[in-house]
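Bug #2210: token dump truncated for DUF2442 domain-containing protein?
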Amino acid sequence: MAELSDEIIDAAIAKGKAAAQNEPRAASVRYDRTSARVVVELTNGATFAFPPKLVEGLGEASDDQLAAVEILGAGYGLHWDELDIDISVPGLMAGIFGTRAYMARRAGQVRSPAKAAAARANGAKGGRPRKSA
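Reproduced locally. Full output below:
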């Protein structure tokens, strides 16, 4: 294992300070039962809200469970202790609502006129081609 030098530590501190100024961080968070949204007030004054059903593991949570959200660390994450769910604030802002596999499954569930038309055209040709060995 490499030894940590003062230069490496100083560089990490500088990188952390830059991230604190540039990346979105949570100043406060609450679950709004009226709109069924998690509302995150960011340190830059902006507000971000999202429906919990988008986040992996929160879709079936009760209002009381959703209301028990807290901020992790220096505002980089949100945590639901009872549900054992953590999600990063920068990830939420980027539209990442779960693991790579979860996001891939959600992407495959998209319904659009173009996707429906492609499915009909594929069906008219005999359906999905069989995998060859």
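Output looks complete on our side. The radius of gyration is 21 Å. Marking as cannot-reproduce; reopen if the truncation happens again.
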